[in-house]
Write a structure and sequence with these properties.
two-stranded antiparallel ribbon, 14 strands, globular, TIM Barrel, binds flavin mononucleotide, 34% helix, 369 residues, alpha/beta, 13 helices
Length: 369
């Protein structure tokens, strides 16, 4: 029977356990996307804390795909030295690091994107101020090429894997969703067409890194939105990726406008509220051959362990590792009490100005002492 501390491999990448740090924007990069030394320390701490795989915060593949200040960029060769220091720091601690590649599409604003945001269709995305410009065929091809170039850089710089951000309402998810994608060409309409951008992006990345390098995707099993990507569409996309050769699908759900069904749900204070994407992941796992990782509300050892025994190959967490970078080590060494994260989402608030994210609750508790 699987356990959380099994050693496994994903397309040749050896992992020390089945726990991953899910991608978490850290706000620890300069405005141009160049990582600050603090981001390297953040990953070093996670590696010391023995999480099996660190998935970086989302990194933009081209400048107009940037969403927030402090976000990492993988759009230029200029960051080679600092990126090599980053991967080297993780490897020195025995860890593995996967970079998450993203284009924000319409989920950004002109201030961050440096131009009118681009999206599959000129449809305003809730919570964002501008109507994006509909991507031309040229934009599509340029951005797919940028994903491939980002993947090539990441491999050259020592990252152990690539993850495409296909979830949470960003560009790939916008193509998948009938709400955001009203295109009349080969990239819109049927689910087969709505998957085309995702699959072409995957192929560009695969061509850049070759067959023997792990390529993963974070995919919404459902957008949890009326008219958005449905569970049936999510399953179709997962099966198409599996057929195309993806190595691992991390299953998530929701977008920032999915209300109480958004990706980072609040008040996870009992085992019943944990693992809220498990049924979507189970649905997908039954239909594919690649590895399945599941994210969303994991807080207790028992729920995580049961998940790898019964429902998924890997469990990933984001907020718990902000409060406790050494959570994996703590559980491995026998203190299996529940993660101290209270899912209050205050960690979303500190930005670049404050030096990046941190657990606001933990900081207050430390200050009281
Ligand atoms: C501060 C913060 C930043 C996040 N940034 C990203 C990101 O860059 N990419 C991503 O795929 N998900 C991001 N997420 C979502 C998480 O990866 C995860 O899917 C979600 O928080 C649910 O998992 P959890 O309950 O373990 O936190 C972020 C979440 C938080 C709290």
């Amino acid at each position: 029977m699987n356990t959380l501390f099994d050693q496994t491999t994903i397309n040749g990448m050896a992992l020390q356990n089945r726990l991953a740090r899910s991608a978490t924007w850290e706000g620890m990069c300069a405005v141009d996307g160049k990582p600050f030394p603090k981001l390297i320390s953040c990953y070093r701490d996670l590696a010391r804390g023995r999480v099996g795989l660190i998935i970086t915060g989302y990194a933009f593949v081209s400048p107009e795909g940037k969403q927030l200040p402090g976000k990492m960029g993988i759009h230029t060769d200029d960051f080679a030295d600092v990126m090599k220091d980053m991967t080297g720091a993780v490897h020195e601690e025995g860890g593995k690091i996967c970079i998450q590649l993203v284009h924000a599409g319409g989920q950004t604003d002109a201030g961050n994107a440096g131009r009118q945001p681009l999206a599959p269709s000129a449809v305003k995305i809730d919570q964002y101020p501008e109507i994006p410009a509909e991507m031309t065929a040229e934009d599509i091809s340029r951005i797919i090429t940028a994903f491939g170039a980002g993947a090539r850089r990441a491999k050259d710089w020592g990252f152990d894997a690539i993850q495409l951000h296909g979830a949470h309402g960003y560009l790939i998810n916008q193509f998948l969703s009938p709400l955001a994608n009203h295109r009349q060409d080969g990239y819109g309409g049927s689910i087969e067409n709505r998957c085309r951008f995702l699959l072409e992006t995957y192929q560009a990345v695969r061509s850049a890194v070759g067959p023997d390098f792990p390529v993963m995707v974070k995919l919404n099993g459902s957008d949890n939105l009326e008219g958005g990507l449905s569970p049936e569409d999510g399953l179709y996309a997962a099966k198409a990726l599996d057929k195309a050769g993806i190595d691992c699908i991390e299953v998530s759900g929701g977008t920032p406008v999915s209300g109480d069904q958004s990706p980072a749900r609040m008040k996870i204070d009992s085992p019943e509220k944990e693992a809220y994407n498990l049924s979507l992941a189970g649905h997908i796992r039954a239909a594919v051959n690649c590895s399945i990782m599941v994210v969303g509300g994991f807080r207790s050892f028992a729920v995580a362990e049961k998940t790898v025994q019964e429902s998924a190959d890997y469990v990933s967490m984001a907020r718990p590792f902000i409060r406790e970078p050494a959570l994996a080590k703590r559980w491995q060494e026998g203190d299996r009490s529940v993660a101290r994260c209270i899912s209050c989402n205050s960690c979303f608030k500190p930005g670049l100005q404050e030096g990046g994210i941190y657990c606001v609750v933990e900081k207050k508790e430390q200050e009281k002492k």
